TrEMBL record:
<keyword id="KW-0479">Metal-binding</keyword>
<dbReference type="InterPro" id="IPR051986">
    <property type="entry name" value="Innate_Immune_Apopt_Reg"/>
</dbReference>
<keyword id="KW-1133">Transmembrane helix</keyword>
<keyword id="KW-0863">Zinc-finger</keyword>
<dbReference type="GO" id="GO:0008270">
    <property type="term" value="F:zinc ion binding"/>
</dbReference>
<feature type="region of interest" description="Disordered">
    <location>
        <begin position="150"/>
        <end position="169"/>
    </location>
</feature>
<dbReference type="InterPro" id="IPR001293">
    <property type="entry name" value="Znf_TRAF"/>
</dbReference>
<feature type="compositionally biased region" description="Basic and acidic residues">
    <location>
        <begin position="154"/>
        <end position="169"/>
    </location>
</feature>
<feature type="domain" description="TRAF-type">
    <location>
        <begin position="64"/>
        <end position="97"/>
    </location>
</feature>
<dbReference type="InterPro" id="IPR013083">
    <property type="entry name" value="Znf_RING/FYVE/PHD"/>
</dbReference>
<dbReference type="GO" id="GO:0005739">
    <property type="term" value="C:mitochondrion"/>
</dbReference>
<feature type="transmembrane region" description="Helical">
    <location>
        <begin position="175"/>
        <end position="193"/>
    </location>
</feature>
<feature type="zinc finger region" description="TRAF-type">
    <location>
        <begin position="64"/>
        <end position="97"/>
    </location>
</feature>
<keyword id="KW-0472">Membrane</keyword>
<dbReference type="Pfam" id="PF21366">
    <property type="entry name" value="TRAFD1-XIAF1_ZnF"/>
</dbReference>
<dbReference type="InterPro" id="IPR049439">
    <property type="entry name" value="TRAFD1-XIAF1_Znf"/>
</dbReference>
<keyword id="KW-0812">Transmembrane</keyword>
Length: 203
């Protein structure tokens, strides 16, 4: 004797959106009576919650709480995510020095910290910390010869001292001009001396 597999089903009007299966039509009234008596729809999230746990559901999920770090108010269920990922005052560490500090200060700190330098032991150059990983993956020590040569050149220049200034060569025109000015000065001096002498003799 075969059993019919196409039994008529219906959706409960009280929990229709949240039911994961259709209710046999013959059991619909019984289901509705039980559903409406024991379940209620959360006004915030829309979940069907047992009436005896409705208050607990609200307190554990939707009750407003303040973050102890930044004092921002939010639903309890997102507090953990907020404190772990979004809170501006959560403690994070600098990727360069591993110093712990509030997330809100991280960018400014790393801008300064990342510009500090460390000596590369392969090429003997000082590399900024923000570039050290890329540098180490590419550095093969060849730059060491260039750096050493540069240091030797600077050392030799320091030993020689500053270059001597070459005496300037006077041009012919400048020499003639100087002689002419000197002659005029001598002539004027002679005239003034002669006038002074004549004035003295008159008195």
């Amino acid at each position: 004797m075969s059993v019919a597999s196409d039994q008529a089903t219906s959706i409960c009007s009280h929990c229709d959106i949240y039911s994961d299966r259709a209710i046999p039509s013959t059991n619909l009234n019984l289901h509705f009576a039980h559903c409406s008596r024991n379940l209620e729809k959360c006004k915030i999230c829309g979940d069907m919650v047992p009436k005896k746990f409705a208050e607990e559901h609200f307190l554990s999920t939707h009750a407003p709480v303040a973050c102890s770090l930044c004092s921002e108010t939010m639903e309890r269920e997102i507090l953990a995510v907020h404190r772990g990922e979004n809170c501006p005052k959560r403690i994070v560490t600098c990727e360069y020095c591993e110093f712990p500090l509030p997330a809100i200060d991280l960018f400014e700190h790393q801008e300064v910290c990342g510009n500090r330098t460390e000596l590369c032991h392969l090429c003997s150059r000082y590399i900024r910390l923000r570039e050290i990983n890329v540098h180490e993956s590419r550095c093969n020590g060849i730059i060491n010869n260039v750096a050493e040569s540069s240091r030797n050149t600077h050392a030799a220049e320091r030993d020689r001292g500053p270059p001597r200034r070459q005496p300037q060569e006077f041009s012919k025109k400048r020499l003639l001009f100087t002689i002419a000015i000197t002659g005029i000065a001598v002539l004027l001096g002679s005239l003034l001396f002669q006038r002074k002498l004549e004035h003295t003799q008159l008195h």
